[in-house]
Write a structure and sequence with these properties.
The chain has 4 helices and 13 strands. It is α+β, with helices and mostly antiparallel strands and 270 residues long. The chain has a single domain, classed as 4-Layer Sandwich (Deoxyribonuclease I, Chain A), CATH 3.60.10.10.
Length: 270
């Protein structure tokens, strides 16, 4: 049986105690020993020599595949500085291909994308898709989010005879129409975890804010119907929801969602 530890985390750009949070996030992820980490809102500021994804990758001894995100002037250390908010996938395996997809856009929230990276995992084709959907509320936000989920589901299709993961910040709770209607295309099976972790993920800056925590970060696994390996996956735990700062700050305003994907490759035929 071969296993992968997978985590997804919205890193909250440069907000809060950013320099401290870099260390807190690195320590929290290192304790998990992940093989794959999907990051959203990964801050990059060339002027300051800052790169969240690269910092975490170096600390975890992983490689970075990135999709540059929204460029704008963000307030950091008392000044507005040109920066990016990237999607990034940290990984141990050699990537075979990377593509990006422009998602349906909300008029007040442009530049939403999906990132897809493909790997060969012990002979099994594996595609990983990283998303960060619109945070806009109301009817327009709900409608666009459903369109983004549909586009992401089609984009994350498993390779022939392979597996696919779709993960990230969906800005939608499990009871929302966008998540309830998240169904795979024909010829693909959506797998269920052994047990569901129902804890929240959008926790705020510190534990004083963490009263009613919605679950808006998710991880889904899909299997091509022609893939003949036995696959199981289960929630490991929601990490990085322990306050570590002097004012009981969290490493990020999101908790990391963590799962273990296990496959029995005996008899696998590509």
């Amino acid at each position: 049986m071969n296993s992968l530890i997978i985590a997804t985390l919205n890193t909250w750009k440069c907000d809060g105690r950013y320099q401290d949070r870099l260390g807190w996030m690195a320590d929290g992820l290192f304790a998990l020993q992940p093989d794959i980490v999907l990051l959203q809102e990964a801050f990059v500021c060339a002027e300051m020599g800052l790169d969240t994804a690269q910092h975490l990758a170096d600390y975890l001894n992983l490689h970075v595949a990135r999709l540059p995100g929204r460029e704008k002037a963000r307030m950091f250390e008392g000044r507005r500085r040109r920066s990016f908010s990237d999607l990034a996938i940290l990984h141990r395996m050699r990537p075979l291909a990377q593509t990006g997809l422009q998602l349906p856009q909300h008029k007040d929230d442009p530049d939403r994308q999906a990132q897809r990276v493909e790997f060969d995992w012990r002979g099994i084709p594996l595609a990983i898709t990283n998303v960060h959907l619109t945070h806009r509320r109301g009817e327009d936000g709900d409608r666009v989010r459903e369109q983004q989920v549909l586009a992401s589901t089609q984009f994350c299709h498993p390779p022939t005879h392979g597996l696919a993961l779709l993960a990230g910040d969906f800005n939608a709770t499990p009871s929302s129409a966008a998540i309830r209607n998240l169904t795979p295309p024909a010829g693909v099976r959506k797998l269920s975890p052994r047990s569901a972790d129902r804890r929240g993920t959008f926790q705020g800056e510190n534990d004083k804010e963490a009263t009613l925590i919605p679950r808006i970060d998710h991880l889904f696994v899909y299997k091509d119907n022609r893939c003949n390996v036995d696959v199981t996956w289960e929630w490991e735990r929601v990490e990085m929801n322990v306050p570590v700062g002097p004012q009981r700050e969290f490493p990020s305003d999101h908790a990391a969602v963590v799962a273990k994907l296990s496959v029995d490759t005996i008899g696998f035929r590509a």
